[in-house]
Amino acid sequence: MPNIYFPHLNLSFNINSVAFEIFGLAIYWYGIIITTGIVGGLFMSAHMAKKEKLDPDIVFDFVLYDLIFAIIGARIYFVAFNWDYYGQNIKEIFNLRGGGIAIYGAIIASVIVASIYCKIYKINLWQLGDIAAYGLLVGQIIGRYGNFANKEAFGDYTNNVFAMCLLKSEVTAPLTQTILDNIVFEYGAEYIQVHPTFLYESMWNMLVLACLLLYYPNKKKHGEIFFLYITGYGIGRFWIEGLRTDQLILNTLNMPASQVVAILSIILGIAGYISCRKDKTFDNLIRY
Q: What is the pTM of this model?
């Protein structure tokens, strides 16, 4: 009996969140997939560094400094908007193996680290941002499948072609009334049928990556790629976040925090791109 299946795509899976054990220590698919995404993104950025005529070791060095802070930032962001739970379960804040990180937190932390790193080592911040954008997209494309393995971060009920069914007994996230009103009985068990938002985001990021790779030969100044990335990612995230049932709500605005950040990302991205193309302070022209 599968615990995940896609009724309209005729695909079914039986995935245990634990991949294997080493000396009694459970190794989760979530961690394996996230790590794979980080490694994939690292090599993508190293490849782009070569195109920028920079030493790829810069990318590896930066990641050594940034990785721990990116994870901390991603966790702080997640915990901050789930404080009702973590305030009562302080020890769970440190339980990263159970999931619970937010990509926006990682990006914000990485930008801060990059600013300091570039100032110390006299590297162009905007050029590093362009290189990092490609790696971030690869990491996000792969990393979202960690949510798939954990059976989390899904949307409300849908019956579209990508509809995903999850074994109800294995789902720990709160379920909306719409989901509960559309329970599916299959294989002698109850399933919920929902939007696979992990898949939507992965596919959207593939599209953004393809567009940025096609755009690269037209790049004139450092920073263009980074600002296009945060614009493109923000547009997709705003839409996808509206579908999810596990939104981190910003109480002051009664709106998902990631949608608020997505709007700010779009505004900043557009303004930054215009500045790159027109402002003389971005005088680091690329010559071919």
A: 0.88
